[in-house]
Write the structure tokens for this entry.
Amino acid sequence: MKIWLAPLHGITNYLFRNSLYRHFGGIDYCVTPFLPVQEKAKLNVKNWKDIWPKNNTEVPTIPQLMGNKPAHFVDTMRAVHDEYGYEAFNWNIGCPVAQVVRRRRGCGIMPDPDTVEDVVRTVTSQTPYRFSVKMRLGLNAPAEGLEILERLDDYPLDFIVIHPRLGVQMYEGKPDLEQLDLFFKHTHHRIIYSGDLFSVQDFERLQKRYPEIEDWMLGRGLLQNPFLAEQLKGLDSGDQRQRFPKYYQKWTREMLEAVKEKSTLAKLKELWHYYAAFYHIPAAELQQLLRINDFDIFYDRTLEIIKDS
């Protein structure tokens, strides 16, 4: 069994990833948050700090790309390989965020199987790199995803990550496992499961239903419980009450060294939407916490929550 860290844009940058890897076990691979493909003349991949090799030494890392123009994928992949040596890339056709979808990127490209196939055909025929896709069931209907799977079945993809929701659902409702059952019948590619893995019980239920799956991607579940990958693998998590504070304080110091207090505070607030579940913080108390706009006050208050839990 392999555990993958999911790409969460604006959250799982290299600072977050490295701190997570150093304090918690169980993660085998990761996919970075998406980078925009561009034509050769506009590329400056030296600025893409998130994929600098020196920032990605902890676990094998795959850059994720977003776009819809086949030639731009080829230009970008070649530039990233020549500069940094990456041999594998992932294409995001699953992001459901409205401003991404409106630009026919992420999940917005799924109603256009011709373009999806054109990108995959171009990349696999014109580059030697391993290529994979991260997708949903579709943007508006599962028929979109089924057609994409059928069209891509003969191409040499490395794997396909499937989140069993529609783009229009965002993260509402439950994953549609009946549709996922149908999807499995339309592809021979290796599937990585992603979506609503929040507990060992969730994992055991899914593993029983899909014994053929060997790769599992954790996103929001791992943010809510940083020990989750260890727990899924049956590893000893030791004293969680001591380990989490060390991680939290170290990561905060590293963020403050890299960015200003204001940006660190914003990132902490984003993470406490998830940590609130780990510490069983009621919604009203969380809202009160998130109204604090002074870094020191916010940080001290969160340390109190951690200490008292």
About this structure: Residues 240-308 form one domain. Strands lie at 2-5, 29-36, 61-66, 88-93, 130-138, 160-166, 191-194, 215-218. The radius of gyration is 20 Å.
